[in-house]
Structure formats: C-alpha cells, structure tokens
Amino acid sequence: MSDVSSAERECGKAFLPKFDSQGLLIAIAVDSETKDILMVAYMDEEALAKTRETGLAHFHSRSRGRLWLKGETSGHFLRVQEMRVDCDQDALILLVKPEGPACHTGARSCFYRRLDGEDLEPIA
C-alpha cells in the first residue's frame, strides 16, 4: 500500500505514478498533430524512466517480459513531445511524433478496424 494520500496524488504537483499490482501503468500513444490514438501499451518503472531520459517511447513487453523500445526492430520510433497524467496517476497519455506506422501490422494505428455488428470492418 502506498504512503501517498489520494489528495496528494489527485491534487498535488508531484509526479507520483501509481503502478498496479504487476508494477505497470497504462500508456496511450496519441499522435501529437492529428490526435489519433496510435496504440495502448504498458510501462513499468524502467520503461517510464527510459522514456523520460531519452524522449523515445519505451514500454514493458508483457509477452517478452522485458523493456521494449518502440521501433527497436522496425525503426518506427515514437518521439515523445509531452506526457499527460490522469487524475489518479495510474495512466499516461504520450503525445508523440511517430516515425512510421505505430502498429506491428504496418497500420498507422493499432486501431484500424471498427466493430460493425459482429464483424470487424477496416477504417478507411
């Protein structure tokens, strides 16, 4: 349990990230120009520190169980322009400048389909 009060976390000026029981925060990458949601991932303390240190989005890969620099294999980095923190500091919005597609499928965004009844339809 944290020593930080809700009032400190919600109304104070200090950055006091609230990691979940697995040590993760939700991180939503948003294109800083278009405001399109590009992807949702998780950050642990290491990923958050590396992102702040380098200006490049780092995440915690749950499937690989390790630090992951977005773009490390594809070259499609996300350059962080601004970080926004939600009210209880357990989620972040990263306003980013993408250097190529954000999705591993090659799509610009991981959100490239919409639900239409029971079917997924590509978003034009």
Automatic annotation (TrEMBL):
UniProt subcellular location: Cytoplasm
Organism: Novosphingobium endophyticum
Presence of keyword Amino-acid biosynthesis: yes
Family under the similarity heading: In the C-terminal section; belongs to the PRA-PH family.
Task of the protein: Catalyzes the hydrolysis of the adenine ring of phosphoribosyl-AMP.
Pfam families per UniProt: PRA-CH
Protein name: Phosphoribosyl-AMP cyclohydrolase
Annotated catalysed reactions: 1-(5-phospho-beta-D-ribosyl)-ATP + H2O = 1-(5-phospho-beta-D-ribosyl)-5'-AMP + diphosphate + H(+); 1-(5-phospho-beta-D-ribosyl)-5'-AMP + H2O = 1-(5-phospho-beta-D-ribosyl)-5-[(5-phospho-beta-D-ribosylamino)methylideneamino]imidazole-4-carboxamide
Lineage: Bacteria, Pseudomonadati, Pseudomonadota, Alphaproteobacteria, Sphingomonadales
Assigned EC number: 3.5.4.19
Keyword Aminoacyl-tRNA synthetase: no
Pathway membership: Amino-acid biosynthesis; L-histidine biosynthesis; L-histidine from 5-phospho-alpha-D-ribose 1-diphosphate: step 2/9; Amino-acid biosynthesis; L-histidine biosynthesis; L-histidine from 5-phospho-alpha-D-ribose 1-diphosphate: step 3/9
